[in-house]
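Thread: quick sanity check before group meeting

JM: Hey all, I'm pulling together slides for Thursday and realized we never actually wrote out the predicted structure for the chain we discussed last week. Dropping the sequence here so it's in one place. If anyone has concerns about the input, flag it before I start.
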Amino acid sequence: MFRLKPTNSSLRSTRHISTAQIRKTKDSPALNFRSLLSALRSENDLIDITQPISPHLEIGALTRRVYETSSPPPLFHNLTTTNTTTTNPTNNLFKILGAPVGLRQDPLTRYGRIALQLNLPSTATPLDILNKLMTAKHSPPLPPTPIPSSTAPGKQNILPAHKTNLTKWPIPTLHPLDGGAYVGTYGFHILRSPDHSWTSWSISRTLVAPIMPGQYIAQVHQQWIDHGAQDTPWALVLDGPPAAAFVGGMPLPSGISEDGYVGALADSPLEVVKCETNDLHVPANAEIVLEGRISATKTVPEGPMAEYHGYAFPDEPVPEPRITVDCVTYRDDPVLPICVAGTAPDETHTLWGAAISAEILDALRGAGLPVRMVWMPFETQCCWVVVSVDVGELGRTGWGTEELSRRVGEVVFGTHAGWEAPKVFVVGDDVDVTDTKQVVWAMATRWRPGADEVVFGDVRGLPMVPYMTRAGRAEVPDPGRGGKTRAPSFPMQLARCGGSQWHGRNGQIAGFGEFQMRFSSASATAFHTPQLSPSHPLDPLFCTSLLTFPAISHPIDHPKMTTRALSPPTSPLPTKRTKATHLPPSARICYDWMIVQGNCHYARDRAIFSTYRPITRRLKHNMFNPHEELEVAGVGTVQMAVVRSLENPFETTVLELHDVLHIPEAVCNGFNPLLYGSSMSCTAEAWTGADVAGCPLWVALPFAGGSRLVLPGNPRGETEIIEGRYYTLSLYVSPEERRELVG
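JM (edit): ok, ran it. Output follows.
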């Protein structure tokens, strides 16, 4: 059994490369894969495995173990066939590097492998990484520099088509349910449009490349088909400049050539060389390059393969365009990097997630939204994007949560990155979005299903998310559109592709067994019932895209209070209300407690009373609706928890209100501070109340021309008050009527 431990000094390369010395040269770890290997060795972050090892499942199992333990990447030197009694002259055609962009155990350098490949120090933080990616995007592209084939390391060996037989190569089979041995799990495809205006470098697995609508490889391929061509010129780079993999994963806008951004990201132009059999240019120092053509008419079976979401489905192969390999070029002693997709984190999360996070952060900032940070937590399998909002800046915008949610959703889902991100969560800046524990804590304690989400049901999305692809077509006709789904109500067989234990020389892997999952339509539906209501911009319940949750735990800044003269509503208010019976009872309660004058407290809902005495009484003279009588259905006591002050929103108290009138036709609840015996004061930001000793009792913030009490957690329910309208909310009852009501 192999022991995974850092390589010792005797196994290190004799040439140690200082990343500080090569930061802006063509030999930097960002532009030269060999330099990256040397840099990893110099930091004790590489394991050389020289014992014979099978590419059939065994390499995949060991690499998965590296991901799960945050161990150094393994470099496999001695590849064998699964039958140890035979030999194959092509077994050691190349070495294999596993987990090239996995995470480290050391918290200080946890993102060190990502950082090195972007010309950053190993101690770079997630924000450093995103800033680097965004800076490169906005920097002038550095066009690649063509060099002669005679000086290109990647041309040291050339295999024409008649000498190329990939079936004899030691290409690893990584998961038991994979449809074959995938040569491309970490490399990138290069295609160019017929008019040469767009050169696309993009990442996609390669047994036969799946060409999905929405991917840029599909868009360029379609241009060649529309141009009347039978084939699309194609190249697959395994592996080239490490920074190129990040650019290939960057969701740049359609039509933008990625090759210039590799130089901008690496701070130095990239050297390229022309292919042998087509006009494409590939990195001159690429380890291995496959040149060929994508057919416009012929297809071959492709798949299945364990994917980034952590599942392997035992599906039948699907037809995909056939790729013909015309030539292979490679360096002496080449190294093939691999990604063994499964439960996070692996390269399908670290590389892809960082690139998507940078693109969304850049888009939100460019739209003027008060965003501090965006991160795609690796543990969420690239299915969540978490947006951190600057609470102080948000308060100054005057936006309500519905407005913020709409703006965030429109920006995110209007980008190519949004096509790849099915769920967006918005949190306050008290949550570190790069700490998944904090994100889960916020979601568990702040998100209220059915009230705190906004569904964008008709936007395009990556058609690979399991809850979309595995649902019945009656429920989800198009897995690539929307995300408002019900999980399937039928049992389905899945295989989890996260296990890493292995036994024996045949690479048999334990932990990859099938298991059965049953989903209930009813339980899933509760997560997708949107309930939008106006709210104060400092309300800690932010809603965003598909599944979202309350986000901000403390108000920090507030818009200035405006004073409006009270006048009758600009339009008649209904005297009878239609209850939203499709919502749970807690969501049908009104939590709008407005500061009122007059001589009564009142409440709209029977459910909030702690003691209650039903009565039948109609008030003939009232200010709510002078033209009709007002029904009072009961009277009783209400115990209401409130926030004491803005300085400490976690300090609360309970106000016990007596002789509260139950008025079902009211548009809100009314709290009369004078009846409670508290003093009041007003600042530019809020109304505050205090007891006889001067201790804070309650605080109210501006809302719809008046002021609304701040309740702990700002519970969200049914509301009928609309911003922009004017309301008369104070209720005065004559002494005779009051005696009849309360005794």
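AS: nice. The first helix runs from residue 33 to 42. The chain has three domains: 9-333, 466-526, 585-742.
JM: adding both to the slides.
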